[in-house]
Design brief:
70 residues; alpha+beta; 2 strands; rod-shaped
């Protein structure tokens, strides 16, 4: 869904801005999504003993692999 926004600046010039609302919503939508992940039992035991936050580690790894930032 694309839209046009109209802004009136301090010097009274009109400015039209083309906005792709669907794309904007995707980029700012920060809802959590539950995903299942299977790991070996021994790895799970070690990670839980170390107090590792699985969700945080997965998010950081995905961001690194994708070359993205939050």
């Amino acid at each position: 869904m694309k839209g046009m926004l109209f802004f009136k600046t301090a010097s009274f010039f009109a400015t039209w801005v083309d906005v792709d609302f669907a794309e904007y919503c995707k980029k700012v939508d920060n809802r959590a999504v539950k995903k299942n992940c299977t790991i070996p039992y021994w790895l799970n035991v070690k990670a839980e003993k170390a107090g590792i936050n699985f969700s945080k580690v997965l998010q950081e790894a995905l961001l690194e692999v994708l070359g993205a930032s939050e």
